[in-house]
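Incident log, support desk, overnight shift.

02:14 A customer reports that sequence design results differ from what the structure should imply. Their input is reproduced verbatim below. On-call engineer (initials T.W.) acknowledged and began investigating.
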């Protein structure tokens, strides 16, 4: 039997330095640019150290995702304790601080099953946390939500993320109207504006 490869400590400052370097490259140039050599050069250490702490590049990407996910989930949990989680969900969807990082990790997940599975688990956990916050919010108000809270969550997250991604380019069609719509929704807890939208008769 071969000897098990020794892996560096998870609390090592060097390990953190390598993760910081990998994250910077991922944000600036995309996942394809993240190699052990590039990470070591960026961190200013030997390339052997990259493999000492992360035996494979999948190990590096998974650790980077988990670190980002833990930070994001903690921030989200804190924000969702606010008096208006609808407003928080909308603002974090349309102005996501880690959208570029997550977009690159999702693109990487299309090519590496282990990354995709980890991303899926993290996104399910986030969605469940957000849904629980919305259900609690309407229960606290003593009101029925205008539509199913799971559907409301998808609308908030989907519209916000699409606008955020498109604003990195030149397409702005429909952005102003959608932003105005969801701003109204945030101000009246969604009961009036969103309820009116879905209750409105269709034009023949």
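02:41 Re-run completed on a clean worker. Output:
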């Amino acid at each position: 039997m071969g000897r098990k490869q020794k892996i560096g400590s998870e609390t090592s400052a060097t390990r953190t330095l390598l993760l910081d370097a990998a994250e910077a490259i991922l944000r600036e140039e995309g996942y394809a640019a993240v190699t052990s050599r590039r990470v070591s050069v960026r961190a200013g250490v030997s390339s052997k150290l990259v493999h000492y702490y992360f035996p494979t590049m999948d190990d590096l990407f998974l650790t980077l995702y988990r670190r980002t996910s833990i930070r994001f989930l903690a921030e989200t949990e804190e924000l969702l304790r606010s008096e208006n989680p609808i407003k928080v969900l909308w603002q974090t969807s349309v102005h996501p601080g880690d959208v570029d990082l997550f977009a690159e990790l999702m693109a990487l997940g299309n090519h590496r099953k282990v990354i995709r599975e980890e991303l899926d688990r993290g996104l399910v956990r986030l969605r469940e946390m957000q849904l629980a916050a919305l259900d609690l919010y309407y229960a606290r108000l003593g009101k029925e939500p205008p539509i199913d809270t799971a559907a409301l969550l998808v609308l908030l997250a989907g519209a916000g993320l699409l606008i955020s991604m498109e604003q990195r380019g030149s397409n702005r069609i429909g952005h102003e109207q959608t932003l105005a719509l969801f701003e109204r929704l945030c101000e009246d807890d969604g009961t009036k504006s969103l309820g009116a939208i879905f209750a409105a008769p269709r034009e023949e």
